[in-house]
Every structure is written in structure tokens, then in C-alpha cells.
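Format notes (please read before filing issues)

Several people have asked whether sequences and C-alpha cells are stored in separate files. They are not. Every record keeps both together, in the order shown below: the sequence lines, then the C-alpha cell lines. Line labels are part of the format and must not be stripped during preprocessing.
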Amino acid sequence: MTHRATAAHPGGGAYVGAPRIWLLPISVAAGMVFVTAAGWLSPSIILDFLAWWPLWLLLIGLVFAAKGRRLWKVRLSAVVPVVATAALVVFTAGHLLGWPAMPSSSQRLVGPIVGSEPTAALSARVDGAITLIRGSDFLYEVDAIRRGGEIGIPSASEQVQGSNISILLEAPLDPGFYAFAGWNIILSDLPTWNLTLDGEIDADFGGLDVSGFQVFGSGNVTLGQATGIIPATVAGTFELVIPSGVAARVVGEAFVPPSWDPLSDGAKSPTAGDGWVISVPVGSTVTITEG
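Then the structure lines:
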């Protein structure tokens, strides 16, 4: 009977586990390349990866330093791939969360400090995603929705007339590596806003003083309280959430809660008084719920 000899690792045991365990970080790295090439991650991750070169250089140094060494009964050569995998996971999380250590986190637009502007109009149209919330210490802020896409951080054209300001956000023609899925817009809650949004929209107007809005495209919009008549146009495929007890009226065809009263040109909520007046153009699909 003959036996096949197995090459022994200098520290003892067969030299089989160390090469195989490198499949873990290699798989993670290959997955990152794949999802970036498929457009699911922003190409800016390449620049972030290059900026972290000291870490990758340190890991390469550990590969050679750990060869043939043990810490108690653990082979260090088997630990390095685990550390490399953890580093890749942490790096990817930092990229998606926009950590300051990432060059891509600098892609951000900050508006002026809120002054005496009692009214502000903002227009944002993009072939991508738009999220909008309140809570900025500035008049407005825009940062990236940190997924893959073709949208760069916008430039802002501002026009001031007396105590009123209008803001036009425009996407760059060629964002280069800094291409993302869309924009996160954060507004100050001090002015009265008139808003025009076009894209894949997820907007929450709660806490904002809104004098009117227009939305085009698709998505979800949560309305806030209404004092007086507030005109709105909703064109596309949208779900609107209106707070319970807020007066609202729809002009056009829309799916409304059963408690709403039908009108000759639409429907109205059971709450009496002035409130949201929502115009729905022909061909749009709008569903209204109360929340």
C-alpha cells in the first residue's frame, strides 16, 4: 500500500487551510467589483479605495510578516485573510455612509445661512431619485444618495428679489466618478416654501411651511398641516399621505379613502375648511391615504 505525502506547514499541520481562507476576502473584493460594474455602487468607490492605500499596504505587509508565525495555537497566516475581509466590509460601509475619511463624502452642496427670506422657491428635476426632508441649519443642503447611478451633485442658481429667493438645482452634464443615484435634499423649516420636484420622489413635507408644490414622476409624498388653501399638482404615479383631520380636496381622478366625499370634479376629505387642493392631471395614478 502506498501513501500520498502531504506537504507540512512549517508551524505544523497540512498547508491547505491558508490558501483556501483567502477565498473569503477575494470573494468580497470580486463582489464589490461586480456590483460597481453593474451600476449598483457609485464609481466614486474607486477613488475612496485608492485613498485608503495605507490600509491596503499594511495588509500586504501583514501577509509577509505573518508567514510561518503563530500566536498561541493560531496561525497568523490564517488570521490575515479574516482581517482583510473585515477591512473590506468596513470600507464599503464607510463609503455607503459617507464617512469623512472618504473623498466622495466631499460631494455636497450647502446653501446660504438662513436670513430674512420669508419665502423660498426650489426646483429640482433629475432623471433619478430625490428625497426631501426638513432639518437643515442652512437654507438648503444637498448630498448624494450613495448608490450607483448617473447623477452628480447639483449646482444651484439663486435669484433674490427683495425678501424672496428662488433656487434652481441642476445636475452636471458629466459627473465623472462622482455619479450617484440622486439627491438628498434637506430644507430649513424657517421660510415658506414653494416646491417643484421631478424624479423618483420620496418627500416628507411634515414640519415645513409649504405654500404650494408640484411633483412629477413617481414616488411617495407625505403632506403636513395646511393653513389656508394650498395648491398642489401631482402628475405621475404617486402615493400621498395626508394627516388625519387635515382638510384636503382632489380635483381629478384619484384613489381616496372611503371616508372621503365624492364631488363632481373629484373628492374631498371629511374635514371642513380650507386646506390642500390637489390637482391630478389626466393619465396620472394617485393614491391618497390618511396617516
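For reference, the curators noted about this record: Residues 1-18 have pLDDT under 50 and may be disordered. Helices lie at 17-21, 23-37, 44-51, 53-65, 76-97.
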